[in-house]
Automatic annotation (TrEMBL), chains A, B, C, D, E, F:
Belongs to the HyuE racemase family. Its EC number is 5.1.99.5. This is Hydantoin racemase. Keywords: Isomerase. The keyword Isomerase applies. It catalyses: D-5-benzylhydantoin = L-5-benzylhydantoin; D-5-isobutylhydantoin = L-5-isobutylhydantoin; a D-5-monosubstituted hydantoin = a L-5-monosubstituted hydantoin. GO terms for molecular function: amino-acid racemase activity; hydantoin racemase activity.
Length: 247, 247, 247, 247, 247, 247
């Protein structure tokens, strides 16, 4: 089984971190392939960055179709382009936020997602509500710019830990979800420190991808995830045009 | 006051139709400027088309910034790229779905949105729920490809009317919202035929834009719609990079 | 276009303030007519005052029907009698709370309504939920009796500002809605001070009224807002009886 | 214990029917006093009638205060004026809809309310949602004008039974709630015919009133049901003014 | 009328306390019979204790069927086994949580439930949401083990009072619900101290039981509460097998 | 990795079917151990059967603790005893309904669960809402007694297929979830017939169990799933008592 991890931002060190996290949990027969977007922002912080990361994401998904992959993971906690990717692909596509909150839901009745910036907090809170966890999960921002997570001396981990401690104290959180792909390397250690489940989205998504492939399940092609209709695309987007059926 | 209408698909005849509808309701002091996306799909039917229409939409919003506009309307009922556009712009940005369901909410306690294809129905239903109208509005698909609305002989209007009649009979609909920018020219006639309010998103959005500008209100720059952070964008997206602050 | 502003309490200075706010935002072709209720309480603070203000409100709406108005605004943030007025009238009727929260919804994903007394807070919170904004808006009371807003020396503005500051700090509010008609004159100044959109219900409702009239839309007469059935009314209410159909 | 039943419409035969239903279920020590509103509409069908029935309702509640009652029931399924009455009174006040749906909730997980006209259906559906039963209860209209329930030859019962049968067949209803005070005499017979619990609001409200009085519980005077503040009321409403405190 | 109070834990002093509370509010013609479970835990603190208390509860309900009772109350605030008991019995079955929150709902628009341990808080919060009160009621834990309520010197009452005070101050609670059967003797005194309604579940459930019996209403046997199907039960549960129908 | 599948009913052929389904999807390193409850009902149809199946379920979980298992699956679609089991165990515990609806949620935006009897439909609908899928999933009953699924000549499959067809036609279902452990052998075939994802709970739960174990995640022991407190259990339940701490 081959699982493609696509980092929808263009920062290769984050891709590497995600790939490492993915390989650490992958089953013995699973090969992890990692790709970094080649067009778009260096990090995804808010709606604007996210929207402009989607073409780069879809380009990676498309380019690797020939080589073959059995499922793909979008390595951003905002679930950037998740719905578009699901209509595009004929394999399962997983997002970090959906995978992580679902995983936490098996372990805890109430939990808290700790993300980076305030601008991402509401965006993720909207996702959490859409995934049906609005009554069970709170979302907190720890005021860390995404790329500070790549910089050991930035003080980011201290801010993250302080916010986790507030979640445990004030929210009655029974588990913690790390709300950014760049935190993937911290999950195990934080779980040991705090003694509650700490869920990382990259790892969670890889296991969901393996599960769906093993089950012979793929995205429904009926209704909202139906394959894109053949039509003309123009300009810089012309490469994304589904083939037009002819007579 | 200048309101920019951006059609996020590349079909100029739809832009023209939307501009006409906009001008028909614009206040005397309002100038309507219309723009058609120059990169992306010819019509937006589902998540894939929508995601790939966003860069074209943002490019139009950006290019016309120098010329000046006081508010902008995204002329697609899927509210394509609405959140990204709001973070980008320092003027009010309106979407058709949000404007239309809000408008219908002043007129009726229960109403039905009639859109085109099944793949758009669930997408719009998700929007309607996010806008808080899930308990009040039902969404129906009338099985009309978007571009058939541009073709008088396609039978599209018959299908649309049949679905409106089902909404009145089965849903207890007190008003109808037309769920596609391509239906904008039909609202008045359908309102006369059925004797209930029929709300068109283009017209509704223009009036909301005028209202916000008159009120001296613009998108909040605090929290989820904060301006994009300065950072590097790569490849085909490099033109979208917010300027990096220096020193 | 003529828009009738009815103050459902009997305090003429509040009517004057609302009319001034309305005129400040009205389009050039819009005439604002203001009316003060002649029966009912001097201010509306809670359910009791509100219920007993409705006949006075409806009387004003009725009396001015002959003179003609194209839409009406009920100048109380509790949306007093809004549903009854909508069944009565054959023109659009706007409430301040519904207009303001809808307007804020175009500008911010999360916002806070700051109202007067605790007894009004829950009432408005119920409205906010009914309008579908329960997940997005918080309601706060600032412990100001309504009529203190008419008294410059009352300290009311200090209390209001303190509560706005708490909303920004604790709620992550991206915009503020002023939750009382008596605060209408403060919106612009507070917006400048705090740098977030500050929405006033009177102004918002006037623009919604203008929008609906321009769009040729009026309250649905099908279903819950159907015109009152002809029947006999007794006692002090006899003047409100719809005409009985004969033969 | 004395329970006051106030019919907020002016039709004495409906009051009589409600009083009979109340007496049939009252405990041995409970005295039922019935009052008919003396100002307002002959029946309550929709928001307009309901709003204009409130002063008459409050007048009856007020006038009988001297004589004494331990709780009051508002004998209309729209829970007309319920919140205003609760702020007014220092005894428990019950509405039919709230009492009936709560009662049905002890007996069934899913149930259907069958009311009279379409215009009342949405109004009651809104109440049902506010009372937290939106996921469990469906509301249906049987197209019966309220006063037809007073006329044995009107065919009203046939329409009501047809709608109950649809509820059982199509909704999976486990119980039925009769959604109009005028149906109070039919509950027992319909329960025998259909073999599911049939809940009448008048009877349910009387038992809730008895329960609250026995428990020594009354409406909270903290927050949203706090007593009306002393202030001046004008015109036809002047009799409703709470006394102004004097220095 | 005979009402059976079953304490689903095995602590007889709690049964006694509940029976005393029940008798204090029972109508003159109501006989209270009390039973203590003879298999299961000494107190119910969380899901595990609750699940294992159900057979003991059902055994008591079953054994007393021959003697006759007209309704039963399950004397635990977790509504332990409520749904199972309702399918079993052909009389009304009441739970403390459902009865108490419904009762509070007639008295207050916002209220707080104060329970014992954190592990019970989320469990009760889930119940409160299921009963439709999620938007109106908050649940707090006061960190009191259940059996400390039986021990006057434990300091439990101090903790409970501190939590009630936080509810009044921070939640805007208009009423308090005591969230444990072991608190039943404290309601009256706390109501006097704090001047807001304080609802005890035992008392509330007794009155609901009386109400349903008086109304001739019993649990629906259609749908989710239908009587258990005749089938074989094995092992320690064999005594619970409904009789198998024979040819 | 060893995964324990516990069938909470006492029908060994259903256990066998579930174990076969589990082994068919288990990873190469996963050993499936199957256990059949030895006390309780032969099938679980509704709340009564479910509640009385929990001790038998917990007994199997307990007895096999010494032998060791890394996760357990409760092989009933009603998620019988899931919360109690989670407090008991220090390994992940999975239910079929939660696992299946979560799995379907990765594949489809709208889907339908098809279960057996009407009495189970509402029970499962309540679960689906609790798991946050109430807006996305509909539940249908196909009127099949559980044990008919064990009888090839019963016509059960015909009824099931008819209900799936209604779901596709009337609900706009994009995927189907099989709502009974006894349907586990039908998923693959039905998926081929209907061309939409068909999710079986047993298989889904096994993969979730594998995922959680691989991720080093287990049920939170903080808050609602905290380990049972040491206390005395009496009578037939005495074997379930957690050990009392001494000194």
């Amino acid at each position: 089984m081959r699982i493609l991890i696509v980092n929808p931002n263009t920062t290769a060190s984050m891709t590497e971190k995600a790939a490492t996290a993915a390989r650490a949990v992958a089953a013995s027969g699973t090969e992890i392939i990692a790709a970094t977007s080649r067009m778009g922002p260096v990090s995804i912080e808010g709606h604007y960055d996210g929207a402009l990361a989607i073409p780069g994401l879809l380009a990676e998904l498309k380019e690797r179709q020939g080589l073959g992959y059995d499922a793909a993971v979008i390595a951003c906690f905002d679930d950037t382009g998740l719905e578009a990717a699901r209509t595009f692909a004929n394999v399962p596509i997983l997002g970090l936020c959906e995978s992580a909150v679902v995983t936490a839901g098996f372990l805890a009745q109430r939990f808290t997602v700790v993300t980076t910036l305030e601008r991402s907090r509401v965006l993720i809170d909207n996702l959490v509500r859409r995934y049906g966890m609005g009554d069970r999960a709170k979302v907190r921002a720890s005021d860390i710019p995404v790329l500070e997570l790549e910089d050991a001396g930035s003080g980011a981990i201290g801010k993250l830990r302080a916010e986790i401690e507030r979640a445990l104290l004030e929210d009655g959180a029974e588990a913690i979800v790390l709300g950014c792909a760049g935190m993937t390397d911290l999950a195990r250690e934080l779980q040991e420190i705090y003694g509650v489940p700490v869920v990382d989205g990259v790892a969670a998504a890889v296991k969901q991808a393996e599960a769906l492939v093993s089950l012979g399940l793929s995205t429904s092609k009926r209704g909202s995830y139906a394959s894109p209709l053949p039509k003309s695309f123009t300009g810089a987007m012309s490469g994304f045009s589904p083939v037009l059926k002819v007579g």
